[in-house]
Give the backbone structure.
Amino acid sequence: MAMDADLKDRIKQAVADGFDEQIAFTQKLVQNPSLRGHEHSIQDLLFRELQGRGYAMDRFKMDHAAIAAHPGGSKISEDHSDAPIVVGIHRPRSETGRSLILQSHLDVVPEGLHDMWSDPPFSGKIEGDWMYGRGAGDMKAGAAANLFALDALRRIGLQPAATVYVQSVVEEESTGNGALQTFLQGYTADAVFIPEPEEEMLVRANLGVLWFEIQVRGVPVHVREMGEGANAIDAAYRIIGAVREVEEEWNADKAGRPHFENEAHPINLNIGKIEGGDWASSVPSWCNVDCRIGIYPGVTAEKAAAEITERVRVFAEADSFLANNPPKVVFNGFYAEGYVLEEGGEAEAVLGRAHEAAIGAPMKSFMTAGYLDTRVYALYNDIPALCYGPKSRNIHGIDECVSLDSVRKITQTMALFIAEWCGTEALDG
Amino acid sequence: MAMDADLKDRIKQAVADGFDEQIAFTQKLVQNPSLRGHEHSIQDLLFRELQGRGYAMDRFKMDHAAIAAHPGGSKISEDHSDAPIVVGIHRPRSETGRSLILQSHLDVVPEGLHDMWSDPPFSGKIEGDWMYGRGAGDMKAGAAANLFALDALRRIGLQPAATVYVQSVVEEESTGNGALQTFLQGYTADAVFIPEPEEEMLVRANLGVLWFEIQVRGVPVHVREMGEGANAIDAAYRIIGAVREVEEEWNADKAGRPHFENEAHPINLNIGKIEGGDWASSVPSWCNVDCRIGIYPGVTAEKAAAEITERVRVFAEADSFLANNPPKVVFNGFYAEGYVLEEGGEAEAVLGRAHEAAIGAPMKSFMTAGYLDTRVYALYNDIPALCYGPKSRNIHGIDECVSLDSVRKITQTMALFIAEWCGTEALDG
């Protein structure tokens, strides 16, 4: 059921009218250095913002035991965040429409070396159409858009005619356990919408992700006797070679996988972090390598993890040093399956109309190779899971930034989507 | 001029008589965690011990500018120790013998992972013939032997009939600048003796050593766009490959080098420490690799460093990622030439007689591939530089230990050497 053209225009104008305020709030979010474990103050900020708008509030911790017992639970490490999950709840007077979850995460990835950035990583600086800062695109612009899409409806005297949960989670960048906890807490709806920076496109398919650390230990010696010892850093690199073989085999296995077979290299192994040894003149006795690899939808984390573990074991057995010093493979983060959004659903149709009304062109969809929280809702809530959001540059990189023009447009798309998906009623009070 | 047999026996007995005390003092040194930069309290302990025995005392800092200006000066980094150098001075009533420097270093290398040690790394535990602990062999047993060899002569009413400098330095494990500072401070003598753990053998030739850090920087990206970015950890490993080629060329160049051509692999490149990246899911934008490589005597540090720097530059130019992100090679520690002790010197002859009297077999000599402070005295003081000391196990490794039986024997060798080299006179007062 399409909306009338006049309502569409009023909604778009309402987003535009609130956009200066939206930019200011987005900037406030970007200026908060909400790195893993340090999302407490930003989650409190979201709590106050939602409460101030009159939403019913829920706030809860992650249940480590319940997460560990769930097949979608990623591994808890000592770096895991204990910042709370925040949910703001809109309940309509008359529950006539379809309910909705608007989700975002406020944790950001490490900023990297500051001296590589043009401005400090949490500057929130605006230059032309772009707002800069770690998390500007991924995904503080989207987090703000969740609030301001609903605010736009209020601005013209409307509210959703269905329950809407605004969820603000953490741990999206390392485990996805924040999203899983919303499921374990019992939250669900008729659809979920997550405004990740997806270049104004809809995510059609998404890889799962595994994190693991390869831990090598070995007997160190004085360099004058190098032949007698073995170098744990060199040994770690040999193991990386073995895991790269797994990566290439998984890439070769793309044939027959509809959303992946046309990608040149769908599965990426990233050697993300390495630490080993104590100083130049001692043969290193230890080396830890942190890796991330993608897995196809339909392949469980457990199966993929077992394959990596076994490959490292077999490789080590045939290596003279590693055979005596068996390395460990420790899964210490993402342990997450991928998902596919089947074509032709009603939620996608509504989003397509909203997109066309806001952007003026048909919506495209695509496969993305990074982890998305959408997988929790697609796999476990079993609801239509829409991931769609603004244009950005260099997410996870240096000088990350988000296009403000695009943020305005996708916020218009979102407000239009909410109005049609949930229906509208006159604002309370 | 050989000593009479009776004096030899009295000296050996005097060492044996003081050996319980020597063990207790050695243990006290081993129990002090005198890691780089943390040698202040142990140098004060040595100062008090020397002063308590009535030696004239000198204590001084390193002169960074003078070290930087000297061709034997290693590179000063922010990790450089500022602990003082301590010298205790014995002056005889009648300067009839040959003067001597007894040198030792009290800095130790990092202990490595504690959970790999059978006991805590600074336990000083004695089990059977072995005293355990980081630095037990390298070279706290030798540092104690310097004092107790002189004490043994006192025990039988004798003292050296020549000036003896007992030098306690730091920075031996990373730069050798402590030893160089004693030269810059004007100390010299007719010979130097350094009781490093050399398996009761004399060091005939010793490689020089260079330390350097390879620093890679590059543009990071989200793993979903890995093809666009480049992985600094991977790039660092490619550079290591280029430096390994230098290592193999230098090994191939052993032909015609008398003390090295019969060694299977005289030049060792050690990849001692690596750090790169921030976490698993970001393509790493930085990686630092700390390396150590040996150089032949007669090859200056400057020439060898230039060769490594140039090789890395040329390699990077041909690498698509590194060409746009030129790596740096920073020399940050040892920048030291090697040395050869020419055969047939008088100091060696005296030591050979002392060794045979203490150990009962002819003294052997050998080439060692690790850095030794002896190079300062051989190259710059231009005096006979004797490096000879006890049997040890696992120096720089796990469960480092020193043989107490061997420590007693080499202390006897040392006391006999001092008595013949310096001559003796009746003790003062």
